[in-house]
Amino acid sequence: MPHEHHHGCGHESNDHDHDHDDAALGYQDNLFQHIDRPNVVALNADGNAADIIKPWHLRLDEAKFLESDADDQLIIRIPFIGTVRLKAILLKAGPGGHTPAKISLFANAPTLDFNDIQDRPATQEIVVPQSRDLGEYAVKTAKFSNVSSITLFIPEAQGEDTTRIYYVGFLGTWTQSKSQPIITVYEAQANLADHEKIQGMDGTWSAPGH
């Protein structure tokens, strides 16, 4: 984990992107190192979903991106290591009509199915302007205060047949796993130690008898 953290201090690309206040605040609150990148999943996607989860100094880079496949709808599920309290989501998309019209955010959603997600009330929706710039969208922190995963549902692009995402990032604070009431302390420790083995943990939490 620390080796990725140090990349953000790179002297080349972290100099004058957004000047002092924005860059300093963003990097300090950036949750990149707490994202479980190997288990980031996308549906109807052409490309590797984890490619858009980039370290801070690559947030403006357009070499890697994720594009929708059969149509302009896209689902991206991003799990965290432990739990986080979200303040904002960062998004770089486009160009032009490939920009999402809006994004529905779902905190701790157990499903990745297009049919289910359209009937599920979103935790919050954000409207995305047609811009290739990096945008910061504040979330209602009270609704995102104990988040172990966040799912992004993009119902449509702004005119083009596909949606393209260059970067997704999150600002907030990491709260580890101490505030999860459903599992015991011992199970929480085991989960953290064996994290790569519990991709389906959402299902196991709701199993009868737990």
TrEMBL record:
GO terms for cellular component: cytoplasm; nucleus. It comes from the Eukaryota. Residues 20-190 form the PITH domain. Residues 1-23 are annotated as: Disordered. Belongs to the PITHD1 family. This is DUF1000-domain-containing protein. InterPro entries: Galactose-bd-like_sf (IPR008979), PITH1-like (IPR045099), PITH_dom (IPR010400), PITH_dom_sf (IPR037047).
